[in-house]
Amino acid sequence: MHRTYTVTEIRDENYRTKTLVLDRALIAKPGQFAMVWLPGVDERPFSIAAASPLTLTVVAVGPFSERLHQLGEGERLWVRGPLGQPFELPAQPSGKRLVMVGGGYGVAPLRFLAREALTANAAVEVCIGARTAADVLLAERLVMDGAVVRVMTEDGSRGGRGLVTAALEAAVLEARPASVYACGPVPMLEAVESRCLAHGLPYQLSWEARMRCGMGLCGTCEVHGRRREGWLACSDGPVSVS
Amino acid sequence: MTDAVDLTCEFLGLRLPNPIILASGVIGTSAALMVRAAREGAGAVTAKSCGPGPRAGHPNPVAVDWGHGVINAIGLSNPGAVAEVALLADAQARLRSLGVPLIASVFGGTVEEFATVARIVSGADPDLIEVNVSCPNVADEFGTPFAASCADAAAVTEAVKVAAVGIPISLKLAPNVPSIGRIAAAVVEAGADAITAINTMPGMVINADAGRPVLSNRVGGLSGPALKPIALRCVAEVASAVEVPIIGTGGVMTGRDAAEMLMAGATAVGVGTAVWYRGVSVLGEIADELCAFLRGSDCAGLGDIRGRIFE
Ligand SMILES: Cc1cc2nc3c(=O)[nH]c(=O)nc-3n(C[C@H](O)[C@H](O)[C@H](O)COP(=O)(O)OP(=O)(O)OC[C@H]3O[C@@H](n4cnc5c(N)ncnc54)[C@H](O)[C@@H]3O)c2cc1C
Ligand SMILES: Cc1cc2nc3c(=O)[nH]c(=O)nc-3n(C[C@H](O)[C@H](O)[C@H](O)COP(=O)(O)O)c2cc1C
Question: What's the mean pLDDT in B145-167?
């Protein structure tokens, strides 16, 4: 069932991204998501960017995300979740080197994971990919959290120029990570997967797909591909573990 | 105590490795997912219902867990019969090698559409065609389901029976009728080889804070735990009314629930919503639990409990 939440704080993250802090917690792990319902509008999946209080980071790319951006403090939204399988940290994270790769809104769930890992004394390096400097998400916050951050932009306006997998490659060559975590568009995930396979590194990827029931019933969010046959992003994922 | 329990289920000449059948509309949307259901232990798998043309289905929300079960109004999303037949053929080729029968599911807006869709999907050589005359979630477009009237349900049965050229058919009935036994008798008289009972029960869930129905379609079909007593009553009524085999479906979450369905007169047991509560592996787990129940009850096979409430 949906539970009613009220927006208590709105933070601008970049020119098209806002973080909505809600009035109470949702017990959830990094990598899990919730279905967010605006009555009369639609219901869409959003990653849990923080659990206590529940926090969502929304990139305005279309009708639904724009409606979320129009919400003001004190306004309500409805949440069904947590849903899906979370990222798993190593059994003993202390002292382990973890590399995370985020594109687009994908940095938001990774920051939740990064904060848990840092609290457990892991060393966290986050590679952030974006089109331009203006699209870079949450880099300063991650640095304040204690992570090492590498930025790549397609036009070179901030950090290195090129795709985020170049930053992953550099991070891996510097020191072998215990695990790689990624969330972002499917082509980015496929590139990260092939780099991890080439290096023989364990990895966890959070997949995006159109979702309807969110309950593993309707079959809409099946991720096709040789490595994941008959795999549902909402209930088997969104996180796949190598 | 008997040591060997035989879960093999004879159904219209088919041999199911066990009586647990994946119900229509739950993960039956691709060959890969249907093969997965078989590998996870289903004794047969039913594809998502398909109609004459592609349908996107309803906008979100399309399903929620309301506390005692699920309500859904997916809206019969499907790729249309022509695309579906390719998917079914792919699934059938892979399921045959696993020894798990494939059940196609068809719907239409008119008697002729039912027949057309059945003729097209016959091309994939499914082991059974289930005829969904009972979807409660498309009333705005299709009007009252055919399962609501003996004459309408019989007319669909006759047309599909001819179109299915030798493939047996099962009519999937609705619980919300004054006498499901009379509908069952009418479709069996018209040529139905089996009955699937039941589809979901129409309902509405409202969120009081939002002051609105939760589903975009406003109404939907109730499934899961809340449906079980309704399904057991319907299966028992159908079993009393007709002799054909029944796929007893509705609210089965455990092997014990499956045993109850068999005791009410079912030959095989459909499982859908349990996939939400327990994951896809629930299909094999329910079969294992049913096996354990039979062993603990000193039964050697399904025949020992089938229809027991009538003894
Ligand atoms: C598990 C999961 C978690 C998600 N978490 C988040 C999240 O934390 N924050 C978030 O903002 N979104 C997230 N999304 C995406 C979100 O559910 C919607 O798809 C998104 O808000 C677009 O909906 P819309 O109606 O605004 O635009 P639509 O009309 O659906 O999309 C407009 C266009 O933008 C493209 N597009 C869709 N999503 C994105 C995107 N994220 N970035 C760039 N282009 C996009 C579409 O392909 C389309 O071309 C998540 C999706 C999944 C499956
Ligand atoms: C998400 C969902 C989609 C369904 N889609 C169909 C369908 O396309 N065709 C059909 O005949 N029944 C459909 N059903 C009904 C189921 O096959 C089954 O009859 C009903 O859910 C009761 O069984 P259960 O409690 O085990 O789920 C659907 C049910 C659910 C929950």
Answer: 94
